[in-house]
Each structure stands twice: as C-alpha cells, then as structure tokens.
C-alpha cells in the first residue's frame, strides 16, 4: 500500500488514537507493520535522531522502513522523531519521509518559535506534516523538572505563530520510563484539546498504564508515541533466548523472539487506542 499521510491516518484512527512506535532495528519495523496488519489499524513508524546517530546515518534504516510500509497492507506513515537538526529534517524530506518532529524545545520561547516556523514553512512547501514541542517533555536530557505542564494559552499562541500541524504537550508523562506509573493530567488534556486547533501528541507514553492511555484519548489526545516499552520487552525476549541456550549464536534465533514480543505489544496498544467497545481484544490483561 502507498505511504499514507499522517492526517489521513489520524482520520482513520478516530474516534480512537493513532499509535506511533519507534524503530531502532529492522525487527522493530517488521513487527510494527505486522501488528498493524493484525489489528487492522493505522500506525506510524518513527525514527529518532538518537537512532540516526546510533546507525551513523538516516538513509539505510529510513529506506528500509519506507519499503516495509509500502509493501504492507496496513496504512502506515514513516516519521522523523525529535530532530533538533534542520539538516536532518531536510535529509528526511529528501528521502521521502512525509512527517517530521522538529524539536527546538530547549531554546527559549522566541527562538523556538522562530526556528520551528521556518522548518514548518519549508516542510509545508513539500507537503510534509510537522510536529513540534512546546517546553520539554519530562525525562529528555534531564532538563525538564517533574510537574511542568504546557500552558493552554501559550500553546494556542505557539501553534498560530509557527503553523505546525501537531503539538507535543507536557501533561504528566516522561520519556524512558520502565515502570508504568505516570499519572496524566486529564483535565489539562481536555482543555488543550478544546483550545489548540491541531492534534495533540503524547510523548513518553511507555510510562503510562493502559487505563491512562485510554483516558488520554477519550479526553482529546490524538497521537500516542511509544518506544521504551517495546525495547524493554524486546530485550527481555532476547535475554531469555540466549540464557536458555548458552551455545546460541545465530542472531535470527534470538532476534526472532524479540521481534515477536514487539509485534504482540504493538498490536495490544493499537487495539487499546482504538477504543472500540466491540473489540474482543480491547480488555486484555492489565498492563
């Protein structure tokens, strides 16, 4: 299936939320596509700037994701996540990635607005969807104190000044959480959804329990980003495989269980975010 623009994925996901999952290895991408096919739900594959740095360049993994998405029967978009470099955004657009998150949130407000507006202008000329962030989400580089929240009026002003298509907001989640104990400010999410004229994005969703994610969507959250949870389960599966067999040396035999674990978890989240009462898989075991 041809790559699907993010606005079309958002429309297809409604009244549920759109799941967005980070890719580090080829196995992540294969698992995400397979899970979307199983759940019959739209999905976003995301490649972060940190992952680009790990691989040494964007193109190899990005082109693989684009191909996996194009070959899948599911509706999929490929997205560049947390890009702080304008050059990386430009490289992503040139490769055919149709959605980017430009993250200038460490800058002061005026500089964030100026930089983000310029990136949004350039991307709009190429038909590329742009997400941005107002104030850092907890846990990124240790620079964001617990309890910080996005101000709704400032968010409205930021969107109007930059022309972005989606906004990542601080509502109680934090990046890189292993325990799923984060408590979201649902009242703030509802207020932001009522005031901000573009879709809201929840980062750091791995630390939010299932009922919190479902409630976030019900209160107006649109796109839900998940990364750490997949990596935790992939690592557990790989560790289990190599622990069981000390002579195991074929990467296919320990990466396959990791890929299967990611596939199962992505399918779980996609069904959860669909918020369909008639889905028999919706109320799986609590997580």
Automatic annotation (TrEMBL):
Q: Any idea which UniProt keywords this protein has?
A: Metal-binding, Zinc
Query: A single GO BP annotation from the record?
Result: carbohydrate metabolic process
Q: Which of this chain's residues are annotated to bind Zn(2+) 1? A: 82, 175, 203
What does the entry's cofactor note say about binding and number? Binds 2 Zn(2+) ions per subunit. One is catalytic and the other provides a structural contribution.
Q: Name the Gene Ontology molecular function terms of this record.
A: aldehyde-lyase activity; zinc ion binding
Which SUPFAM superfamilies does this chain map to? Answer: Aldolase
Task: Provide the residue positions that the database annotates as binding Zn(2+) 2.
Answer: 103, 133
Note the InterPro entries from the entry. Answer: Aldolase_TIM, Class_II_FBP_aldolase, FBA_II
The catalytic residues are 81
Top-level taxon in the UniProt lineage: Bacteria
Provide the cofactor list for this protein: Zn(2+)
PANTHER family named among the record's database cross-references: D-TAGATOSE-1,6-BISPHOSPHATE ALDOLASE (PTHR30304), D-TAGATOSE-1,6-BISPHOSPHATE ALDOLASE SUBUNIT GATY-RELATED (PTHR30304:SF0)
Q: What is this protein called?
A: Fructose-bisphosphate aldolase, class II
């Amino acid at each position: 299936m041809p790559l699907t623009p993010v606005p079309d994925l958002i429309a297809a996901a409604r009244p549920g939320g759109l799941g967005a999952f980070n890719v580090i290895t080829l196995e992540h991408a294969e698992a995400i596509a397979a899970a979307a096919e199983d759940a019959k739900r739209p999905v976003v594959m995301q490649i972060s700037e940190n992952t680009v740095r790990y691989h040494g360049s964007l193109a190899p993994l990005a082109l693989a994701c684009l191909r996996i998405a194009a070959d899948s029967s599911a509706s999929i978009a490929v997205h560049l996540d947390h890009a702080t470099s304008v050059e990386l955004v430009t490289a992503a657009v040139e490769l055919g990635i149709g959605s980017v998150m430009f993250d200038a949130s460490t800058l002061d407000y005026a500089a964030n607005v100026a930089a983000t507006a310029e990136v949004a202008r350039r991307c709009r000329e190429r038909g590329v969807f742009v997400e941005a962030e107002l104030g850092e989400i907890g846990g990124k580089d240790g620079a964001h104190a617990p309890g910080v929240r996005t101000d709704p009026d400032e968010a409205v002003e930021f969107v109007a000044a930059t022309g972005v298509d989606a906004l990542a907001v601080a509502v109680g989640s934090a990046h890189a959480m292993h325990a799923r104990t984060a408590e979201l400010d649902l009242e703030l999410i509802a207020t932001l959804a009522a005031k901000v004229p573009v879709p809201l994005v929840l980062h750091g969703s791995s630390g939010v329990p299932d009922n919190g994610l479902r409630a976030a969507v019900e209160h107006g959250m649109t796109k839900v980003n998940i990364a750490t949870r997949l990596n935790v389960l992939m690592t557990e599966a790989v560790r289990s495989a190599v622990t069981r067999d000390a002579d195991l040396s074929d990467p296919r035999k320990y990466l396959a269980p990791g890929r299967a674990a990611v596939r199962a978890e992505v399918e779980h989240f996609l069904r959860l975010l669909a918020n369909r009462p008639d889905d028999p898989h919706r109320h799986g075991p609590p997580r």
